[in-house]
């Protein structure tokens, strides 16, 4: 995966435009950020259920965030860390393919590299997402500097659902 070029795959049926119905139209594109944590798994399940009920397409974005601290830590192998990320990506891909099949849901799986907030924001803009779903942060440090979810809410471009 090269920097700046997302790795994009599509599964399930293709999204079909539907005529407008007053009072019944919900989101057409639901974007969810996943990273392999328990809260992101719950966010993915919530987003898939919502997209299925609304007849929307689902965009699943996995962001591989480079960690500059790894290079400064003795005993941490950057290649092993990359293999772990690749394994996680493969596992997510299998789950998404299974969900697309079971739910009959059009799903786009996109892998990006960079800052999770920037990449999710850019993906939401590119796909013209009607809403963004993310899991609540499990990291204590985010209380001080702000989580990805908080930063997305402050952006104010789309409704953001934060799943605990």
Structure report:
With 164 residues, this protein is of the alpha/beta class. The chain has a single domain, classed as 3-Layer(aba) Sandwich (Rossmann fold). Helix content is 40%, strand content 21%. Helix 3 (116-126) packs across helix 5. The radius of gyration is 16 Å and the shape is globular. It starts with 6 loop residues before the first strand and ends with a strand. Pfam families: Usp (PF00582). This is Nucleotide-binding universal stress protein, UspA family. InterPro entries: Rossmann-like_a/b/a_fold (IPR014729), Universal_stress_UspA (IPR006015), UspA (IPR006016). Residues 1-27 are annotated as: Disordered.
β-sheet strand percentage: 15-25%
Please tally the β strands and state the result.
Answer: 6
> Average pLDDT across residues?
83
Shape: globular
Spatial extent as radius of gyration: 16 Å
Query: What is the H/E string?
Result: EEHEHEHEHHE
- Count of separate structural domains: 1
Look up the CATH topology: Rossmann fold
User: Portion of residues in helices?
Assistant: 40-55%
**N-to-C span:** 30 Å
Biggest sheet layout: 6 strands, mixed
**CATH top-level class:** Alpha Beta
CATH architecture classification = 3-Layer(aba) Sandwich
Name the CATH superfamily assignment. Answer: HUPs
Low-confidence spans = 141-145
